[in-house]
Amino acid sequence: MLLKLAWLNIWRNKRRTIITATSVFFAVLLAIIFRSLTDGIYDNMIHNVVSYSSGYLQIHQKGYWDEQSIDNTFQENQQLYQKLLKNPKVTHIMPRLQTFALASYSNKTKGVLVLGIDPVKEKEVNNLHDKIVAGEYIDSINDNAVVLGEGLASQLKLKVNDTLVLLGQGYHASSAAAKFRVKGLIKMGAIELNNNVVYMPLQLAQYMHSAENRLTSISVMLDKASNLEKLQQSLQESIDSDTYEIMSWKEMLPEMDQFIEADSTGHYIVIGILYFIISFGLFGTLMMMIFERKHELGILISIGMKKRLLALMLLLESIMISLLGCSMGILGGFLIVKWFTIHPVHFTGELKEVYEEYGIESIIYFSDHEKIFITQTLIVLILSILIAFYPGYKVMRLKPVEAINN
Rounded to whole angstroms, how far apart are CA atoms 19 and 26? Predict the structure, then answer.
């Protein structure tokens, strides 16, 4: 009976109900959009970094991370590949052989990072071919050529089709020396990587280092970064833990994780201020509702309606209006986030150049993770319900005679 009465009451004054529901609607909408934007920026930042380096998860021989030597490599295992790819949360795996060497051209010599990669798989994940600024990308795993970072090529004073000499240490202290044709120059976002990296096909790197069919790591890419901890645990249980070790990007790149945590604190402050403003807006609309109905409430109490039932009815009215506003907010937020997920914001002109100069993709992405919609809606709904207790408190202290005369 109270539910029916509360529903009828909220539509007796449509303008008041629409104003209150609209305030809740905008509260939910703004909270969802803000959180979706910040999470989308973080997710894209993480993806851009880990796709070139560690992957969301990295599988390597146990003990490799403490002593990153080519002697701590492991044998390629097709069964391990199949086991990883069978997991629906795993989108790509990237086998890599990572070593260090001296690179020389003419009278210039420099220490470099040598990355043996599968060109096709790297192309699918991080679009290396789109970052070629001179020459061509490595076509296949059998291509007998290398691709250099643009900064490294500038330091060595070489160009496309020149011959690069690499000298390093191979597997089990064997000699690793070879000459390679420079097929292309690549401009990486990360300055340190751009000034030091040499990409070569995986089989070529294995042959040079006398490490046939051996890898330093397998980088694992996921469908969603939020699956990280659960997937790490499940994969650790499914593989030989005595041979392999699985680490997440948070363990391998703690500086970036700490930066995101610190930056998130600032965003939490901003969204906290937003919730504070939202709460005052809701409080104001509920105060207006009580003031307009003070005479009506006084009459209801004077004719015998119990104050606690009246307070409960007002609470139900407030909850109904809040639910109505939250529902519209979820719908509006979903449509806006979905649009910007399909059509992300692309920067142009000078702003695009500034972003790309610092190695940041000049695109603003939105996150459509369901947790955003659930969390933000629940927060606003709980705030609305807590504030809705105030009308009940006022009713419990209401004096019928004073209310009727006012």
Answer: 11
Coil/strand/helix, residue 122: helix
**Model confidence at 343: pLDDT above 80:** yes
CA distance 375 to 47: 23
How long is the chain? Answer: 406
Q: Which class for 133: exposed (0-12), middle (13-18), buried (19 or more C-beta within 10 A)? A: exposed
CB 232 within 8 A of CB 105: no
Our CA angle for 84, 370, 226, nearest 5°, is 35
- 250 has a pLDDT exceeding 60: yes
Segments making up each domain of the chain, as ranges = 2-48+257-405, 54-252
* CA nearest neighbour of 70 among 100, 103, 110, 104: 100
pLDDT digits (tens, 9 = 90+) for 347-374: 777 766 766 665 566 678 888 888 888 8
- Cβ pair 83, 220 in contact under 8 A: no
Cβ neighbour number for residue 52 with a 10 Å cutoff: 21
| Beta strands 163-169; 90-105: pairing state | antiparallel
Angle between helices 307-342 and 14-52 (to 10 degrees): 40
pLDDT single digits (tens) 208-237: 999 898 999 999 988 776 668 788 888 888
What is the distance between the alpha carbons of residues 217 and 245, in angstroms, rounded to a whole number? 10
* Backbone phi and psi for residue 177, each to the nearest 5 degrees, phi listed first: -140, 135
